Amino acid sequence: MTNPTPPSDPSNAAALALSLAYAARAVTPPNPSVGCVIVDGQRILGQGQTQRAGGPHAEIMALQDAAAKGYPVKGATAYVTLEPCSHHGRTGPCCDALIAAGIKKVVASIADPNPLVAGQGFERLRAAGIEVEVGPGAAESRELNIGFFSRMVRKTPWVRMKIAASLDGVTALDNGQSQWITSPDARADGHAWRARAGAILTGIGTVLQDNPRLDVRLVDTPRQPYRIIVDSQLQTPADAQIFKSGGAIWIYTAVRDEPREAALKALGATVSYLPNAQGKVDLAALMQDLARREINELHVEAGNKLNGSLIREGLVDEILVYLAPKLLGAGQGMASFGPLQQLSDALPLRFLSTEMVGADLRVLARGVGRDQF
Questions:
Q1: Which of 29, 39, 238, 275 is most buried by its number of CB atoms within 10 A?
Q2: Is 59 noted as a catalytic residue in this protein?
Q3: What is the pTM of this model?
Q4: pLDDT of residue 293
């Protein structure tokens, strides 16, 4: 899937609900992005989309919209892109609000994978005499919320690795210089992908070499993703740019160093000790920890060593590559892993999209079978 665009047929209630969900995707994490449209025949009574975490869900927004317009919704049909929730989380159950409003029918795209819901919303609606239809827009809704589905089903985020490279696959010169291989258009597009993620991950090598801020600056965003540093030896300098743009920073390390840890915590960082048997950060355990911290989509912008480690451990779901129309010859590659002994050991991918972004080519490829959960 490319960076998604809304469906093109707003006259269809299910398509309109999906377009509302698409428009909310940068706002809702860690909640799924959901749209809701309430109709009576051919007339739209109310519509809404999920707000920031802790705010109203799509169904509540649609009911409020109808009320603000003076439209009664008793006997109406609600089109929603995800099963209405049935539990008390940050907000009350949406299915109860639909029942209380007198909705006659609910058309939902797909069941909620959250174990706290998982069909119970549909059961509660049916028990109240509401007709329930499931299916329209299911694939689109799941794809839009693939990170949420991943966190709920696999207990890990959906991991997307972003790489900027020359046409011959070089991401940095031998001397480490890498800014900028791709065009301003590609960099802005990359920031749009950052904006939809719950967190952005990099390694200590990138922090020391490039000193990035890792925030979203080149596109408008209602929130900043968390920033994560994989720093086995706790080498993150206190004057790193990443501390100067505000927002939460999580550092994962494999060593105990109380003075350094205290200095980083004084800057607002959260430091977690997560070693593996080799004295490095346990990357698989890191992914599980990020899921516990409610990260749906993880956007990786790292060097070839960390990229290679993530690929080698089978933790990458999708690769987003921007290829610049230039050749750089000898230099650092996209990911350092292997060497493989035979071609059949290659990581199998399938192309989802190819698109020109300014002068550069954007390629989105997904690991074969990674979305089968």
A1: 29
A2: yes
A3: 0.92
A4: 97
